[in-house]
Amino acid sequence: MAEYLGSCLCGGVKFEVQGEFESFFLCHCRYCQKDTGSAHAANLFAQSAKLVWLAGAEEVVTFTLPGTRHKKAFCGCCGSALPSTHDAGMLAVPAGCLDTDIKISPTANIFTSSKAGWVKELDLLPKFDTLPE
Q1: pLDDT > 90 fraction of the chain, expressed in percent and rounded
Q2: Hey, where are the domains in the chain?
Q3: Ramachandran region of residue 32, left (φ > 0), alpha (ψ -120 to 50) or beta?
């Protein structure tokens, strides 16, 4: 069984995902744009994997947008996105909070009708390994 470790930015929350991810979606909906502050969310999904909080479970805050199924868990100290369990036990894990490398590549872009207009030609922009001078 695969095991993936993850944590928040401040290191106060640590967790383990036991099992495999079935899908990896880049979600372009307006809700994901708002809660990430970016063009899309990058979330891994698993129906059968188990989430185990190793440290800082008391710091995890969960917000569900009223009238929707949109849910976000985050560290109450540093605000980092964290895993959450959704309807029917579906585990959603923000890819960026994992400390263990994953082998799965994104499965699909979803809610592309809401895609931010400024992401259309990102591949044409200059690329830097670090912050440019």
Answers
A1: 82
A2: 3-114
A3: alpha
